[in-house]
Amino acid sequence: MPAPTPATSHDPLRPKRLDEFAGQPDVVTELGIVLGGAQSRSEIAPHLLFAGPPGLGKTTLAGIVANELNLPMIATTGPAIEKAGDLAGLLVSLERPAVVFIDEIHRLPRTVEEMLYTAMEDRRIDILIEQGPGKSRAIPMALGEFVLIGATTRAGMLGGPLRDRFGHTLRLELYDTGTLASIVTRSARLLGVTLTGDAAHIIASRSRGTPRIANKWLRRARDVADSRGITTLDADLAEDALTLFGVDKLGLDKLDRKLLTVLCTQFGGGPVGVSTLGAAVGEEPGTLEEVHEPYLMRTGLLNRTPRGRMATAATYRHLNLSVPPLLAAAETGPAADSTDSGARQLQLG
Question: Does any domain span residue 261?
Answer without folding.
Answer: yes
